[in-house]
Amino acid sequence: MPTIDSHTHLFAPQQVRARLALADRDTTFAEMYRNAEAKMATATQLLAELDLGGFDRAVAAGFAFADEKDLAEQNESLLGAAREAEGRIIPLATINPALKGWKMAAQAALDGGARGFGELRPHSQGWDPLGPAGHGLCAFARDAGSVLLWHVSEPVGHAYPGKAGGISPVELCALAMAFPGLRMIASHLGGGLSFYLQMPEVRAGIDSVYFDTAASSLLYDDDSVTRLVALAGADRVLFGSDYPLLSPRRQLQRITALLPGDSAAAVCGGNADILFSDLHNQ
Asked: Looking at the domain that runs over 4-281, which CATH code has it been given?
C-alpha cells in the first residue's frame, strides 16, 4: 500500500514572506504564526520532507484566512503546486462560507483540482457550522462528491495557539448526522468525538466520518491511537502529521510502532488512497 500523510499544510511562498503583514490583518493567523519560530512550509519543502520519510503522497491544506484575497492567493498557489507535483500533493482548498460568492470560489477550486475543503475553522472565520453557512457548505460538498477536513478542538486540556476556532465534537457529530454519507475528516483524533463511538446511535450516525492522527503526540498519550483504531476501526483512521508543525517521518515511525502490520498499512496510506481515489473517480 502507498504511504500517505493525510494532514499537512502549505503556504504560498509570497505569503511566507508576508508573514507580519498577514498577521496584522488576520487575528487567527497572528495567534498561530506571528511568532517567527512558528513553522510555515512551501510545496518545495513538503516534497523534500516526503522524500526524506519515504512517503508517496500527502494531502495538503492551507490556512483558514478570513479575507477573500488571501484565500484566493493561497488556493492558486496550492493548486498550482499540486499540478506541478504530478499527483504527489492532494490539495484541499480553503474557503470562507461567510463571504458572498463563496460557492463560485469553491467550484473554481474543484475545477482546478481540489479534492475537497479544509482545514475548516468556522468560528475563526465567523460562521456557524450548524447554521445556514455550515449546512450550505455540507450540501455543496455532498453534491460535489468532495471531502471536508475540520479542525476539531478538544474542549478540555491545555491551551495552545490555534486550539479555538474550529468545530467542537458536539457540533461535528450533529453536522455529520444531518448529512449522512458526506465524507468528513475529524482532525486531531476528533477532539474526543471518537470516545462516543461506544454509543450505538453515534456509531451509526457518523459512519462517514474519518479521524486523523495529526498532532496527536502533542495532545494525547501513546495508547490513544490504538484506542481510536479499536473504537472507529482501522479503516476509518488516517495518518496525519500536521507538517510542518511535526515531522512526518518521526510521526510515521511512532504510529507504525503502535499498530499491527495490517492496521498500520491501512492507517498510514491505504485508507487515504481509497478515499481520495473514490473522490477522483466521481
From this structure: 3.20.20.140
